[in-house]
Design goal:
Distance between the termini: 18 Å
Bound molecules: cytidine-5'-monophosphate
Number of helices: 10
Structural class: alpha/beta
Radius of gyration: 17 Å
Largest sheet: 5 strands, parallel
CATH superfamily of the largest domain: P-loop containing nucleotide triphosphate hydrolases
Strand content: 15-25%
Order of helices and strands: EHEHHEEEHHHEHEHHEH
Helix content: 40-55%
Number of domains: 2
Shape: globular
Amino acid sequence: DIPVICIDGPTASGKGTLADEVAQALGYVVLDSGMLYRASGLAAQRAGADLDDGQAVAAIAARLDLHFSRGRVLLGDDDITDALRLETTGLLASKVAAHSEVRHALHQLQLDYRRLPGLVADGRDMGTAIFPDAPLKVFLTASAATRAERRYKQLISKGISASIAGLRQDLEARDLQDKSRKASPLAPAADARELDNSALSIEESKDLVLDWWAQ
Ligand code: C5P
């Protein structure tokens, strides 16, 4: 049995950073499932598919031609590394992720990330739908104000201007869309441990999760 740690939670709660830290500490592999939905959204958009057509988008998601090379992500011949991070791509991902056909198309691909010595899976439904038997499920939250402020600092450090109020509006709108969809709505698994990291450093959150894992 390959051990899996699930880290689910709302937009910009710090899941990716925490997943990377925990994986690095344990020597585990990381699954960034949001990236798969983002890439599917971009692939569907680039193919000119009707984004409201779940079957059409699922067909594209099922044959995602993704490659990883020197820290870059390629979709076919296109370098989508920068496009993946845009909030417009996050919204696009949230739109295609609402189709159960798309979620189904990406299911096996996500299971295939399991590899020894273990996997840290980051997303919205890792603990509820993809790895329901995982021994440790973390539902990571932070206040909307904290999440917006972290996003803001990230953007500013890259020289991109933004407004905290605008960012907060965007992330709350995306969370609402993710919570209110019928297919795998964003919600903690019944056996998830909730962790509000608003007042915690990355180091503190990581140590807490590693303590839970060691228990
Ligand atoms: O985590 P990230 O912001 O990259 O996810 C983008 C979008 O993909 C989310 O807003 C959500 O709608 C969707 N998603 C999902 N299930 C996952 C991961 C992401 O529905 N496991």
